[in-house]
Amino acid sequence: MPHTTHTEDGSPLIGVGFLGAGPVTQAIHLPSLARLTDLFAVAHVMDVDGGVAADVAARAGARHSTSMEELLADPRVEVVAICSPHKFHATQVIAACRAGKKAVLCEKPFAVSGEEAAEIAAVSDETGVPIVVGAMHTFDPGWLAAEQLMGDLPETAHTLRSSVVLPPNARFEDFATQVFTRPPGPTRPPLTHPSRPEPDLSDLAVVATMLEGGVLGLAIHDLPIVRRFVPRFDDLEVLHAEIVRPFGYVFLLQAGGRTIELTAAMNATWKPDWTFEAIGPDSTLKVTFTPSYVQAGSAVAEFTTADQTTVAGPFGCNGYEGEWRRIAGIVRGTEQAPDAATLIDDLRFALAIADGARAHVLEAAA
Amino acid sequence: MSAFSVDTTHTAGLAEIVASLPLSLSPVGDGPAQLAAVAGSPGWAQRAMEAADGGALAVVVGSPQTDDGVAALASETAPRVVLAWDFAANPGVLAAADAAAPLRESAVLAEATLAVPSGTDLDAALLDVLVAVDRVAGEPASLRSLHRGANSWHLAGGTRSGAPLALSLVVTDAASASLRLRILTDDGGLTAVVPSPDTAAPAEIRVVARDGERLLPTLWETSRRASWRRAVAIAAGDTISGDIAELHRLTPLAAAALG
Ligand SMILES: NC(=O)c1ccc[n+]([C@@H]2O[C@H](COP(=O)([O-])OP(=O)(O)OC[C@H]3O[C@@H](n4cnc5c(N)ncnc54)[C@H](O)[C@@H]3O)[C@@H](O)[C@H]2O)c1
After folding, report:
1. For atom 11 of ligand 1, which residue has the closest CA?
2. What pLDDT score was predicted for residue A8?
3. How many whole angstroms separate alpha carbon A324 and alpha carbon B96?
4. pLDDT attached to residue A10
5. Around Cβ A190, how many Cβ atoms within 10 Å?
6. What is the domain range of residue B184?
7. Which CATH number covers residue A361?
8. Chain segment B198-253, per-residue pLDDT in tens
9. Quick one: average pLDDT of A298-320?
10. Looking at the partner chain, which of A159, A261, A269 has a beta carbon nearest the beta carbon of B208?
11. Is residue B49 a contact partner of residue B77, using CB atoms and an 8 Å limit?
């Protein structure tokens, strides 16, 4: 892949640079790009861990470094993919925009605070650099087909339900690739660390932080989809927020006249079950997604009315490939960039839920 | 065994039940029926008592609604009363209850999600869901209403093992009614999808464990037929019903949720 720089028709391959080369880069993005060698070439891999950067770059035949500035200064990097831990996302998005790159792919979550969201909005306006957030389900051909099927359901739905049951990430990372520097020992429990003690759930601050982690780490995948059915969320209310052990949540929300159920359980099961449902008076939509990491094809969408169910999918590719194809289209000028204001509102929606959950948990105790 | 008589003329759908249990049930000729069908509209407890006092060997209450008279049902009558819940009496729920028993202690989440057509009495539907949850996930330790609107009712509580319990009753005319129960443990769980009481389509009960997923044998019987079979067994003296005791036990939880 890396050794050619042009497609068969002579147009140059789009150079990609990675900030952060952990499991997501290794298991999600490199395999996705390996399906799109007619569009992209990995040019540069940066990680604060030089060993990871060097190994992952070698896999892709790319340059490596431990400095963001070096990567952003590399003219072969046209698209920057931000795959570092959450707290670095906003700074790196802003730096990539200021570096005048052709597009930025930022893994979810886009940012972790309202202030960061506002800063990104300003920089995106000022620089005009297109930004794509790695909410892969929004690019999944199964969901895109659902959008075509669902008629007036976004206006009529009264109940939205996002339900996620997932094995530990490592199960699917290991199906998708061979991860460099996997922490030794048994598979990592999600969002906790083997060396960390069991969280103290009697401490409400711990509960609130875990709920926030659940929203920004997991629920966030489908919140942009939920928001398609929620006309406004300035009146968002968290009616219930609870932890599912060892990691997960049960939320009940009200916003814009809709009731929203968010449920997740990440544990030692082998069986993933990831669905989104929208329920209206005379129609319902159910979208069943494939698990993260693996190239397991698209979601399946089922749209049901009183007398029939229409099924779309599965299609051969998932939302990871979808997001990269979209980026190629944006860079080539054949596709529109997502509306930055929409992406920022998606993030604000997630932050409003996390903040509401914190307030709810602390108030319930007061 | 001779068939027990029932009056099929006053209860919609009963002729079909009799036709599906012809060796056990027969339409009444002259004289009072041996098995009584009582409508589940309010006042059913009183009517069930009257039927038993009138000589019925067993009483089947169709789709029970909330009724203050439950506590007053005489202790001799209660064991002869079958509550024909639309969902909780589905034979698949009873099978799921057995399969779920070993999972209850280690449950990390229990859920019940009901979809019903517009016009459904949600108070009655909650009782049905609560009985189904009691049978499969075990008696809830707590329950409270979070939000009730024209189109949905959401409740939260906890299981005896301390796991969150989430109940959701949602109204839609797309597709037929169904109840989904789910118990998740740390490494698997059980899901039961129970179809509309109008059909003999089987409930789908799947148990996930470390070594794989098991679909329990499918039972092609409506909840109503299963309830009438139980009434026949009660009339024959083979068993007694714990339905009234169960409802009585769950009444404080339901009352708290109903507010
Ligand atoms: N879209 C998806 O399906 C999906 C799935 C899981 C995680 N994610 C997101 O992807 C991101 C990365 O996830 P991960 O599991 O690979 O995380 P990780 O923390 O395991 O790995 C991140 C990598 O970034 C490196 N790093 C740390 N600080 C850095 C910095 N300042 N600049 C550059 N690199 C830095 C680390 O050394 C590590 O190699 C997270 O934001 C996560 O939310 C997305």
Report:
1. A83
2. 60
3. 44
4. 64
5. 19
6. 91-215
7. 3.30.360.10
8. 999 999 999 999 999 999 999 999 999 999 999 999 999 999 999 999 999 999 99
9. 97
10. A269
11. yes
**Adjacency order of strands within the sheet including B152-158:** B142-148, B152-158, B164-171, B107-116, B178-185, B188-195, B204-209, B212-215
Domain housing A122: 14-133
Residues whose CB falls within 8 Å of the CB of residue B90, separated by 6 or more in sequence, listed in order = B194, B195, B197, B203, B222, B223, B226
Look at residues A66, A98, A133 and tell me which one is the last residue of a structural domain: A133
User: Which residue out of B114, B146, B170, B178 would a mutagenesis test of the A interface target, given it has the greatest number of A Cβ atoms within 10 Å?
Assistant: B170
Domain with residue B98: its CATH number is 3.30.360.10
Same domain, A168 and A297: yes
Give the model confidence (pLDDT) of B113-169 as tens digits.
999 999 999 999 999 999 999 999 999 999 999 999 999 999 999 999 999 999 999
Q: Nearest C-alpha to atom 38 of ligand 1 is from which residue?
A: A22
Same-domain check for residues A231 and A307? yes
Please indicate whether, in this complex, the C-beta atoms of A252 and B210 are within 8 angstroms of each other: no
Q: pTM for this one? A: 0.95
Name which of A239, A269, A305 is nearest B174 (Cβ-Cβ). A305
Does a structural domain hold residue A144?
Answer: yes
What is the maximum span of chain A, computed from C-alpha positions, in angstroms?
A: 67
Contact by Cβ (8 Å): A315, A24:
no
Whether A86 is in the pocket of ligand 1, judged by its Cβ within 6 Å, is: yes
Residue A251: CB atoms within 10 A of its CB come to 24
φ, ψ dihedrals at A333, nearest 5°: 80, 15
Residue B197 structure tokens: 């009481």
Q: What does DSSP say about strands B25-27 and B4-6: parallel, antiparallel, or unpaired?
A: parallel
Q: Assess whether A40 and A167 both reside in one domain.
A: no
**Contact assignment for B184 to A281 by CB distance below 8 Å:** no
Residue A198: pLDDT band (50, 70, 90) is: confident
- Read off the pLDDT band of A188 (50, 70, 90): very low
Residue of A nearest to B110 (CA): A244
| Positive/negative CA dihedral, A201, A207, A211, A212 | negative
- For A238, which residue in chain B has the nearest alpha carbon? B146
Residue A5 lies in a domain: no
CB contact under 8 A, A306 and B173: yes
- Distance from CA of residue A201 to its chain's centroid? 27
Question: Using the beta-carbon criterion (under 8 Å), do B171 and A281 form an inter-chain contact?
Answer: yes
CA atoms of A196 and A194, how far apart (whole Å): 5
Pairwise CA distance, residues B212 & B206, whole Å: 10
Interface check for B180 against chain A (CB to CB < 8 A): the answer is no
